[in-house]
Amino acid sequence: MKILRAFILITFLLPLAPSSLLKAAQTELSGDAAQSESARAIPSEGLRPAYNDVDSVKPPPPVSATLSVDPTTVEDISDRNYLEKVCTLLQGAKESIYVSMYVSNPKVSETHPVGKLFQALADAASRGVKVSVWLNSSFNEETVLDRKKYDDFWADLQKKGIKIQWVSSGARLHDKLVVVDREYVVEGSTNWTFAALQKNFESDTLIRSKPLAGKKIERLEGFPLEKPESLNPLQTTFVEIPAEFFTNGALLPKIVAANDREAWDLFFNLMTIRKVQGEGLWKLKSADIASVLENRAAKDARKIKPRKVLDRLEKKYHLLTCEFIKKDDTFQVQLVELGSDPRLKMVRIPVAFYQYGYQKQWSLSAQFAYGISLIMASESKTKPYWMSPMYQLEKRFSVGEKILREGLTELKRENAVEFVFSKKSGDESKMSARLLFSYRNNPLRSEEEKETELLKVRNQLASLPVEDWKRARAYAEMFDDPYDTNLTKQFAELAKTYPAPMLEPVIMRVAQFSPDNSLRSPEYIKKILERK
What we know:
Shape: globular
Number of helices: 22
Distance between the termini: 66 Å
Helix content: 40-55%
Strand content: 5-15%
Number of strands: 15
Radius of gyration: 28 Å
Structural class: alpha+beta
Largest sheet: 7 strands, mixed
Mean pLDDT: 78
Oligomer: single chain
Low-confidence stretches: 1-27, 29-69, 140-146, 297-302, 424-429
């Protein structure tokens, strides 16, 4: 038998509250920071004749004799055959599945082509099959793929028993590889994306060979991996608030409409105590409650009496019941009983919201919009994105459009929420102001963390003149995204290419567009300048 020369085509394929009311609350919150056989029958398709090497091309080294592959074990599964064949393999896996992929755009929907593959992985893991996934972490700067937008998806897969591993960014992982039960190897050009599975011409081969499968797995297990990031306990510890407080127009929406900052601040600090003490009746010292409001009092140059704020929370906003015990100088406080079981749905607010001072810094509109964004993201079927027309948000959360838009815009400025526009179908060379967009929630960052991320960008652009860097920062500020590192990079490129007298009038004009207008972007600015 002639020595087989196998060419596998691999192409382009993914504080606490300002201060806690009680020392116990602070201690507790910081402590929390911790197939069927028929599916396996592969029809005989035969192999193509060996490739005739061109003299100027150095031929690859011969394949080891131990890796000889019988032609009867090879099947072409190119183009639209890939999805069905691979899903069948995954559904019939009994022991192990190894996936190594350059680009993967995961989908939650089981009807989506990519979603079908990931659902098959999850189902296999639930059957006790060992499932391991290697993913690329090195992309070109200009790529539209943002790895972090799928963090929630990968985390969810890990909870289902799937091992997710990121190959070190020192080398680009360009695989499109699946190995099942250490016997079946699928390799070719298909990434796990909609375009690859449904639109592109893709070449793929299914090979049944235990020696080859073993070699592939040995290679995968030798990859250098990124060290897992240590989890920030401020991001992974939460204060839970019943979602009904946000959706019931007579509760928190009423406070927002009245712009009652004192009542809002005290309520959210009471939630930190609720985390420690649980449901039921709490006894709180007057001095403890006053300490929550003292910063506000200093700002207003007046002394705020805790009893008056608690009185509003009880009688005006109906959020709690309260009784003052004079002899102990304490208040007995209890949350109202809601119409439905509050444990069925909770808004999980990260402790970073308190610890980083956002409760003090953000307006009530922004804080309320943040609660809405957490609720919507938790319900979304396309995590980490969520989408809803503004009128539906108004109706569900009983607040006006002005409050919602101002709040979301402020969150965008703080890089807590991003507006993500969909790709335009058809002629992508034209831009439209009516593209649909969704929202994505980002982890909260302290001011120091934000500046550190920007410093990393500045170091990457070390050759950029200081004045151009300052201009890029100023342009990002005009676009309400001073801490968006990708936006700052784009503006830095514009500042390097175009002189200020030519660039700035265009930026000022485009910056006045509505934040939900897809034309409000560096790409559109560049198109205008290119036409001049």
